[in-house]
Design brief:
The protein has 4 helices and 27 strands. By secondary structure, the protein is mainly β. It folds into 3 domains: 101 residues, Sandwich (Jelly Rolls), CATH 2.60.120; 105 residues, Sandwich (Jelly Rolls), CATH 2.60.120.290; 101 residues, Jelly Rolls. Strand 5 and strand 6 form a beta hairpin. It is 8% helix and 45% strand.
């Protein structure tokens, strides 16, 4: 007969194993449409010191994985939780994340032994999402539309060039990270390129398609004032410098337009979502340069002729651009500006 202490030890060991285990097998939809990690847990579990565990998920076409994490750990102790190669910060209270990549790692590292976490997962059927078609030369909110995916189409034999713009604060919001990008006409049959943040890097800070279509999907539904603008790649690839500014009708903004590398040209597209026009209130030229600034309506894709041309000492302001989007081109010029959207 087993002694009471041995029985207690076995019971304790069984309890710990049920609370934290690191499965070797990949979790798939075939295991059930929902579940929890660690397997069998119903609340936060303390992970033993020295543990490194990767929970692997298989995500089939037409599905996304939703994970809701509650966690408490100290990053200074080199503890961490990583989802889709991004850290889940602590403390986290039912932090919701989505993923669409075919194989997804959920990494838990407990160096200290004090890390605690609990997560639930659900496979979400997105195969019936409706497609929204956008032409290049247009802008749209980064939150996208509920239960839909957006496909941008460039001209035949061209490519899509997609850029992100934030409000006048200049700060990027979470929608950059929350937008999934696919190289093609839909997300069911196209190559997954990653989140937009994976593609947002120099020198262009632009996501390019390999064909004339690029598809975007956002499952988070986080409200945002940020915008995507799409162009034909042939219209903007030649630009040495191309920036996006997002303004509003509530406040005017001021800034400086010039080529950061002191080369000849720089382009800026200014967008005011919900506005009828953009008011150019002031332009102040640096007189050590002898160039000019041109203003055309809409985006570079439309290839419209300049509506205004300004130089030092030759500025009749204010001027109104009768469109919610306008593109400024500086040539050998350094210009301080003030603009505001108008309803």
């Amino acid at each position: 007969m087993l002694s009471r202490s041995v029985v207690l030890l076995l019971a304790t060991s069984t309890f710990v194993a049920a609370q934290f285990s690191c499965p070797l097998n990949t979790i798939s939809k075939n295991n059930g449409m929902s579940g929890s990690i660690p397997p069998g847990a119903a609340s936060m579990v303390q992970v033993p010191a020295g543990s490194t565990c990767t929970f692997k998920f298989d995500i089939p076409k037409g599905f996304a994985l939703k994970i809701e994490t509650t966690a408490d750990y100290d990053i200074s102790k080199r503890d961490s939780i990583k989802f889709d190669d991004f850290y889940i910060t602590s403390p986290a209270e039912k932090k919701i994340e989505y993923a669409v990549r075919k194989t997804l790692p959920y990494n838990v590292v407990s160096k200290s032994g004090s890390l605690k976490f609990f997560a639930t997962y659900t496979y979400v059927d997105i195969s019936n999402y409706q497609q929204v078609i956008k032409a290049t030369g247009t802008f749209f909110n980064t939150t996208l539309e509920a239960n839909k995916f957006t496909t941008v189409r460039a001209a035949n034999n061209d490519q899509v060039a997609l850029k992100y713009g934030s409000r006048e604060t200049g700060f990027h919001d979470e929608t950059m990270y929350q937008t999934f990008v696919f190289d093609g006409n839909d997300f069911m049959n196209s190559e997954y390129l990653g989140r937009y943040t994976d593609l947002y890097h120099g020198p262009d800070y632009t996501a390019f398609s390999t064909s004339n279509t690029l598809t975007l999907l956002n499952l988070y539904r986080t409200p945002s004032d940020s915008l995507f603008i799409s162009n034909d790649a042939s219209a903007v690839k030649k630009y040495d410098q191309y920036k996006i500014l997002v303004v509003s009708s509530a406040n005017q903004i001021s800034g400086l337009m010039y080529n950061f590398h002191d080369n000849a040209d720089a382009w800026y597209t200014i967008i005011c979502d919900g506005c009828n026009s953009i008011n150019i209130k002031s332009l102040d030229f640096d007189t050590s340069y002898n160039g000019y600034l041109e203003v055309q309506e809409l985006s570079p894709t439309q290839k419209l002729p300049p509506k205004f041309r300004f130089q030092a000492g030759n500025n009749q302001l204010p001027q109104l651009v009768s469109a919610p989007m306008t593109t400024f081109h500086t040539y050998k010029a350094r210009v301080s500006f003030t603009v505001q959207g108008e309803n």
